[in-house]
Amino acid sequence: MPPLSRSSFPKLGFGVGLRACHYRDFLEQRPAVDWLEVHTENYLNQGGWDVHVLERLRHDYPISLHGVGLGIGSAKGFSNEHLQRVRDVIKRVDPMLVSEHLCWGAVNDRHLNDLLPLPLTKEALDLVCLRVDRIQDALGRQILLENVSTYLRYRDDAMSESEFLTAVAEQTGCGVLLDINNLYVNQCNHQEDALAALHMIPVNLVGEIHLAGHLKTPDAVIDHHGAKVDEAVWTLYEVALRRFGEVSTLIEWDTDIPELAVLLSEAHHARSIVQRQRTEAAALCLAEKQQQFSNLLFDSHNEHYFASFFKGDMALTEQRFALYRGNLSATWEKTLSAAYPVLKTLVGEEFFNALTKEYGKLYPSEFGDLNLFGDHFADFLADFPHVAQYPYFPDMARLEWSLHRAHYAPDPTPLDFSELMCLPPDQLDEVQLVLQPLCTIFASEWAIVDLWLAHQTTGEIHFPSSIRSPNYGLVIRPQWRSDVLPLSAPAHEALSKLQQGNTLGTALDAAFALDEAFDFGAYLQQWMQHGVFSDRRNHTQ
Fold it and tell me: What distance in Å separates the CA atoms of residue 440 and residue 443, rounded to the nearest whole number?
């Protein structure tokens, strides 16, 4: 038959397997449990005490029929007669869910009455898909197929059980009954990764979850359904809930069956896990989780939050979280080292790295573009008490930041001075020259320009004899490399006036007021050579 259209599976809540020793409890007390699951083969006959009890209880509890005898993967032992009897039970009981096991159990001349492991091969996959199609066609409804625990794996397995189960579900339209205990048992027996197996199953395929106990022996872990759910299985269940949602959950217990109260307590524990996850989800939405993660990165004194925030061993969790914190610090150091190489040289690598950590905490990155991260470094240095004895550091940071931003500025379109030179002197005085946006006029009471130039590879400038000496400069980028042109005080004054929107005549008057011998022609030639002015100029009317 073609794949069924998969509808949403019913959400039944938390159920227990109905066993004969608990019949009287249910008949007389109707204990509070959301639903009941029974083994289909116990009700194949149309009369008797078992059928009578189920008929009475199905009016008060949703019922799931869980088959253990069809042997879907039996190559030459599958019984159509058994399938018809299963169909008759379904018609009588009208269950909410119908499920079977991914296994085989019969050969030509005998039925082995066990859930035996299938080779995970293409041949077996094709057979199982044909069988599931035949079963769903005969029953007129979707079934769930359960992963089984095994003690052996075949040499010719071509896929994992999760891949096999997913392929069957996707090709036939059946759903998956995910037995969490069986995942764990197979992890122990075959060194398979239960978490990986769980995550390989698509979210929309799982319609029911089974939880049960197991027995650890020297030879294997046995899925005996005769104990409380193991803590490792509860942990996997929590992961499954986060992945698949609040899927109908059943507590299975088939051997050494205790009082009903024990099963109900296990079902209550499953319910409490779901309720806790709901509470956590309501209290901590995605945005809040990410905010909390961010807070933990920035505050190393918040480790006490780890226990409620992350899973696993606390000591290991703290060590691993430190990797994220280290990544953040390394990003800060790398980014600021690129923007402030001279400052790093002045203070030394170790102290500079400490500065970047303090800066990052006070001025976190605000953009995905890390090239903007160091924008407040000069302000940070001005307020940071541990560098107070070096008052020129903030100005060095301002100069280096101007160089850094010039490096990433849009390509300039320089002014064509040929037109300018053709103007008569009276009109030239009225011209307003506009500096390139990437150019920054710089002034400091400290010898910052000389100090910066002395750290460049050209070696043309010597270290200043005194740091307390006024310095002026112009940050430029004539082609691809940012640079600093030293300026005299009059040249700085002239450029400052032009940047303020004054005319060339006004700018020259201000420069000559400081130095009558100011050589404007030499500076103008230098500025023209480096493309300092933009072609966006104005002529006053």
Answer: 10
The domain defined by 14-283 folds into TIM Barrel (3.20.20)
Element (H, E) at 171: helix 161-172
Q: Which residues pair with 35 in a beta bridge?
A: 15
Instruction: State the residue for tokens 């990003």.
Output: 331
Q: Assess if CATH 3.30.160 describes domain 417-539.
A: no
**Sign of the C-alpha dihedral, residues 506, 508, 511, 513?**
negative
pLDDT at 10: 94
SS3 208: strand
Q: List, in order, residues 6 or more apart from 349 with CB less than 8 Å away.
A: none
Q: Is 0.70 surpassed by the pTM of this model?
A: no
Question: Amino acid identity of 16?
Answer: V
The residue assigned the tokens 């096991």 is 101
Q: How many CA atoms within 13 Å lie on the side-chain side of 130?
A: 10
Q: How far apart are CA 450 and CA 433, in angstroms?
A: 27
Q: Residue 44: enclosing H or E segment and its boundaries?
A: none
For tokens 């492991």, the residue is 117
Q: Is the dihedral of CA 227, 228, 229, 232 positive or negative?
A: negative
Continuous segment of H or E residues that includes residue 232: helix 231-244
- For range 304-319, the mean pLDDT: 74
Dihedral sign for Cα 300, 305, 310, 311, please. positive
Q: How far apart are CA 505 and CA 519, in angstroms?
A: 14
Neighbours of 232 (CB within 10 A): 15
Q: Which of 197-206, 291-300, 510-519 has the lowest mean pLDDT?
A: 291-300
Contacts 24+ apart (CB under 8 A), 361-368: 361/298, 364/298
Q: Express each pLDDT in 267-305 by its tens digit.
A: 999 999 999 888 777 665 677 778 888 888 888 666 556
DSSP string, 372-424: GGGGGHHHHHHH-GGGTT-TTHHHHHHHHHHHHHHHTSPPP-B--HHHHHTS-
pLDDT digits (tens, 9 = 90+) for 411-443: 878 887 776 777 777 788 888 889 999 999 999
Taking a C-beta distance cutoff of 8 angstroms, is the pair 212, 179 a contact?
Answer: yes
Kindly list the domain boundaries of the chain, sorted by start residue.
14-283, 314-390, 417-539
Write phi, then psi, for 483 (nearest 5 degrees): -150, 175
Cβ–Cβ under 8 Å, residues 207 and 175: yes
- SS3 of 24-43: the string is HHHHHHCCCCCEEEEEHHHH
Burial 512-539 (b: 16+ CB within 10 A, else e): eeeeeebeeeebbeebbebbbbbeeeee
| Amino acid letter for position 43 | Y
Both structure tokens of 240: 């499954």
DSSP annotation of 95 reads -
Residue whose entry in the numeric block shows the structure tokens 């891949």 = 163
Separation CA 406–CA 418 (nearest Å)? 26
